[in-house]
Amino acid sequence: MKFTLLDALGQRAIRAALIFAVMGPGVLVSAHTSMPTASANAAAAQSGWTTLFNGKDLDGWKQRGGKAKYTVENGEIIGTAVANTPNSFLCPPGTYGDFELELEFKCDPRLNSGVQVRSLAKATKHSPDQPYGYQVEIDMDAPRGRWWSAGIYDEGRRGWLYPLKGNKEQAAAFTKEGGEVSKPGEWNTLRIVAIGDSITTFLNGAPRATLKDDVTKAGFIGLQVHSVSEKNAGTTVRFRNVRIKGCPLPEPSCVEPSACCASDATSNTLTASEVAEGWQLLWNGKDASGWRGSKRKDFPPKGWSIENGTLNVLAKGKGGDIVTEKTYANFELSVDFKMTPAANSGIKYFVQPKLANGPEFQILDDAKHHDAKKGRDGNRTIGSLYDLIPARKDKPVGTVNTWHTARVVARGSQVEHWLDGVKVLEYDRHSNAFRARVKASKFKGVTEYGEWESGHILLQDHDDAVAFRNIKIRELKGGK
Questions:
Q1: Taking the model in full, what pTM does it have?
Q2: Tens of pLDDT along 279-297?
Q3: Count of domains in the chain?
Q4: What is the dihedral of CA 405, 410, 414, 419, to 10 degrees?
Q5: Is residue 139 within 8 Å of 112, Cβ to Cβ?
Q6: Contact 218, 254 (CB under 8 A)
């Protein structure tokens, strides 16, 4: 069954007309163009689609970033690479949050390209408005053997999100699938569905990437020509039949994550691919089912609240920690969290009932909470294994009042901590090195600390306001 944006949005009204921008440098239009027929435009409008490119000219489009050349010929947008200039982006008018975007592309295998969505721009030393944000990749590099078209890259920010940076198994599978559905040297159809905190991509009708992330909820769209050296100057990427189904936002300035208007309707849900991969929701987003106080049989009557799909620790609420009713041994855990200024909290795993404690993924406002400077070598900062192993120093910055994603992978004795798509530490919990760290920590008196076969998942109440959502887990086959 084909999923469309209108299925998800129902009777949601179109909120505003498109906002036109001034064309930037390097935008040229050929006299040899053809315009889509009136019947084609009428059919698109009747089905709910809006044509972003009229097949004739680039009226209303704006070039951002570098100085690649964009021309129009035979109903196609042709992006031509120029040496020694930053990545270039040709952007249609409008700011979009929830949408379904579809286009066709044909790309020289020597050239990398992509489609920016929900993107913003910032001044850099190379450009006054260099785009950054989600990019759906166009990568048809046969000699390199990497077929990552329709993958999701965070341009100018965090890097690869899908396949996830450092996940070799996912990258290998994504390459294999991409090789089967890609059409190098031919026209390919790219489809992008963005609803709430979910972005899903399709290449030539085949599903490719599914991402849940809401660092940016809305922004502009852009067609990329990648920066190149002199060797690949003149290579081209072509686009045609660019159309969108969705609601342009009323103000183009609505670009900061806290100000954007996209829906959070997909929070605390699982995609079809997640279900197929074995994921389960640990929290249903509605009530306290599946959870209890760490030192009581029921859910705390105070100190916690459930509101608008978030599970909240209340400041000075004195509710105490909460744990899952079930225990887990080999698992992959994913939790979205949002901190207030100077907040301290954590996600613990392998928690033992009598101790109400276990290894902890630290949640902390490193900039303002005093605990960041305690411990040893930063082992109490965000993403660290609390009081034992510090997260890597070049980890993503844990900004406050912004949603972040913690991920813990535990298979046998091997454990990994991930923060916003970046692996920040890994350890062997049965190793002598781990035991030595325990002996030097505040847990030195706990027998076999962190080496237990299984345990509960715990969310910590440290008397600071912290919110949680999208709490999900999948059980894995055991390791060594």
A1: 0.57
A2: 999 999 999 999 999 999 9
A3: 2
A4: 0
A5: yes
A6: yes
